[in-house]
Amino acid sequence: MNKEFIDALNQLANERNIDKEQLLADFEDSLRQAYESKVEPGKQIEVEVNPDTGEIEVLVIKRVVEQVEDPNLDIALEEALKLDPDVEVGMEMVFPVDSERFTRIAVQTTKQVITQKIREAERNTVYNEYKDRAGDVITAVVSRQDNKRNVFVDLGRGEAIMPPKEQIPGERYMVGMRLKVYLAKVELGSRGPSILVSRAAPELLQYLMRQEIPEVADETVEIKAIAREAGQRSKVAVTSRNSNVDPIGACIGHRGSRIQAVTGELQRERVDIIMWDSSPREFIRNALSPAKVGNIEVDNDNHKVRVMVGNDQLSLAIGKGGQNVRLAAKLTGYTIDLVASETISDLDAALQAAASRQEPSVAASSSKRAAFEALFAGTTVTSASPEEPAKE
Predict the structure, then answer these.
(1) In a domain, 285, yes or no
(2) pLDDT (tens digit per residue) in 269-318
(3) Do both 121 and 47 map to the same domain?
(4) H/E stretch holding 374
(5) Against a cut of 0.90, is the pTM above it?
(6) Chain CA centroid to CA 340, Å
(7) Average pLDDT, stretch 323-333?
(8) Per the domain annotation, does 283 fall within a domain?
(9) pLDDT > 70: what percent of the chain?
(10) CATH of the domain at 164
């Protein structure tokens, strides 16, 4: 062992971002294990490596006893006193070992052990780097893909896996492609750290909205809930903490510029922004948009609702493949039962009632217009009902 080896060890520690002192301690431990198993089996060995010169000192440790039980571990007091007059029972004595006895087998074993130690240190470094970052969104680079359609991405100091269920359906992942991923889980197993990332998580959509919408970033607009079917459609419930700020308009932006910037990162996934409401009934009504629904019966104890829907709105409420009602259920947390109804919905009834209240004023306006036009026609007009013609 020499100074060049120590320099190489230090360089390795710097490149792999491993603690130098820990790597040297692991190296000493690997030497000790190799020596105990291949050169001096059964004996207690201590190995010290000079961090400056690279010199190795191998020592056999024995305990001073009155009567020797194990010659590999014990030394008789009588014999020990010949070597050191001040020695006492219970003390330990060290005996240098000829380094030439460190055989080729021991060296090979050392190489294997230290390689394993380096791998373990790297794994621990990766785990410590990302264990507290679960829940973050980071930029990764696609590194490879296996025959099970798992995509592996390089995070910078480690590699993460993105299984098919965490991918956006239809999105193609090419080697070298940069993309944003949600760090879903970080675990340390027997084979090292396991890092799971996702492109399908609702948290990724929430992160992108914070990046593109200032009102969401400063929490003027609050995202209350998200239901997502990645690559296809999502529903986001929002509310405003400022009465002067329209939460839906803030999220959509001028001509849809803000929400388009979000969907551009998600393969043009359709994102519906709806108004959150503290009333479950109104929240469910909003969640089923763009369908217009009627009466809603809420069972809060079982988190179920029964929604009356006009025949002309039923397919819209269900959505393609049941997607609209499915997302509404995820968003609100209620099981939604849609019931087709021949009767008009309460919303349509309200609109008709409002229209009927306007009819008298329309009729009066028509009568006044006829009287005004009669002045220029040289005729006399009297007030008449809309059904009767004016008399000359």
Answers:
(1) no
(2) 999 999 999 999 999 999 999 999 999 999 999 999 999 999 999 999 99
(3) yes
(4) helix 359-377
(5) no
(6) 39
(7) 97
(8) no
(9) 83
(10) 2.40.50.140
Identify whether 281 is part of a domain: no
Give the pLDDT mean for 127-146: 93
d(CA 179, CA 270): 19
* Model confidence band, residue 11 (pLDDT cutoffs 50, 70, 90): confident
Domain boundary among the residues 182, 198, 214 is at 198
Question: How many CB atoms neighbour CB 8 within 10 A?
Answer: 11
pLDDT surpasses 70 at 99: no
Please report the DSSP string for 192-258 in residue order.
Answer: EEEEEEESS-HHHHHHHHHHH-HHHHTTSEEEEEEEEETTTEEEEEEEESSTTS-HHHHHH-GGGHH
Highest mean pLDDT pick, 23-32, 36-45, 144-153: 144-153
Indicate whether 21 and 119 sit together in one domain.
Answer: yes
Instruction: Give the domain extent around 375.
Output: 358-392
Cα–chain-centroid distance for residue 326?
A: 23
The structure tokens 């399908």 sit at 200
Peptide bond into 290 cis (omega under 30): yes
Q: Do 167 and 64 lie in a common domain?
A: no
Domain shared by 101 and 46, yes or no: yes
- Same domain, yes or no: 38 and 59: yes
Q: What is the DSSP string of 127-161?
A: HHHHTT-TT-EEEEEEEEE-TT--EEEE-SSSEEE
Q: Cα separation of 362 and 59, whole Å?
A: 109
Structure tokens at 167: 């991918």
Q: How many CB atoms sit inside 10 A of residue 170's CB?
A: 9
Q: Quick check: 22 pLDDT over 60?
A: yes
Does one domain contain both 58 and 137? no
* List of E strands, the chain: 44-49, 56-65, 74-76, 92-96, 137-145, 151-154, 159-162, 178-189, 192-198, 221-229, 233-240, 270-275, 296-299, 304-310, 335-341
CB atoms within 10 A of CB 310: 20
In a domain, 282, yes or no: no
